[in-house]
Amino acid sequence: MIVRDRPHGAQLFFIVRGSVLPHVAWELITCIAVAVLVTLTHGFVYQFKVTLTTVPFSLIGLALAIFLGFRNSTAYDRYWEARKLWAEVESRSRTFARQVQTMLLLDAPASPTPPQDPRHGLVMRTIAFASALRHQLRGSDPMPDMRRLLAEADVAGFGTARTGTDYLLRRNGEVLGDLLRARKVDAPLALDLDQTLTALTSAAAGCERIQNTPVPFPYTLLLHRTAWLYCFLLPFGLVDTVGFMTPFVVAIVAYTFFGLDALGDEIEEPFGLAANHLPLDTVCQNIEIQLREALGETDLPAALQPVEYRLT
């Protein structure tokens, strides 16, 4: 995700990092080349004059702009919902760590919490859950992080589980169930902790829903085709009225339409590694710092900082 101050003045025209321009450069160059060719030939294709007025382009352009706006609104809804779900993961993880550390007093409080204390395992599995969810959504290998965060038995169980995130929450539930049956935790407190785990499960399921339910392909295909046809035919409708300025006008229109199309493509799948995707590495790092601090640890990992205005 790009994090920077709002650009002003001439800066607007020279910023490339985070812009959609690199994604639409070839489409833009192609449209400008066609516009230049049409301008030089005055709209003739061999011996035939292609005569188009601006009226159909006005009608189609208005419909296309509304269509692009609706599609981008849908894509941003997916992006924003994904961010809210990850905010829920962060909030519930903090809540779980606080509940475990302040209310689940099995023995005399210790700072930092020793690894053999059940509270330590409960919190570390919650940290691992956030990292595992990130890897699951991005299709990357979670095992290096799991070996760093979990005990050997949990690493082995995670490796054999079909869904690692579900395994980690289930293990936390099993530990709480054992404590409840051993009468080391009261039933009302166990219920509160279980509700927090349920909220984490719900947030993970919401992320999976966004990932596994893309915008319908025919919807996207129609938009792509219409934008291409409009931008390629536009020079024939402009050359008789704006003359040598045709390539310039076509460049502005093509940049707007292709840029909105590319931006929608990028943010409708918000969990990837593109410049404008969600900074899941940073969110997971923050969760780890906060929960390790709740355990009383002082040797905490450093918070991730933007690299060239980008958080990953």
Structure description:
The chain is mainly alpha-helical. It has one domain (23-312). Helix content is 69%, strand content 1%. The chain has helices spanning 21-41, 54-103, 118-138, 143-149, 152-160, 164-181, 187-212, 217-242, 246-267, 280-294, and strands at residues 44-45, 48-49. A two-stranded antiparallel ribbon has the order 1-2. The longest helix is centred in the N-terminal third of the chain and has 50 residues, at 54-103. It is elongated and about 90 Å long. The mean pLDDT is 87.
- Write the element-wise H/E pattern from the N-terminal end onward: HEEHHHHHHHHH
Work out the radius of gyration.
27 Å
Count every helix, treating DSSP H or I runs of 4 or more residues as helices: 10
- Main β-sheet, spatial strand arrangement: 1-2
**First-last Cα distance:** 6 Å
Number of strands: 2
Helical content band: 55-70%
Main beta-sheet strand count, sense and barrel state:
2 strands, antiparallel
- Percent of residues in β-strands: under 5%
Q: Quote the average pLDDT.
A: 87
Return the domain count.
Answer: 1
Uncertain segments: none
Give the structural class. Answer: mainly alpha
Inertia-based shape:
elongated
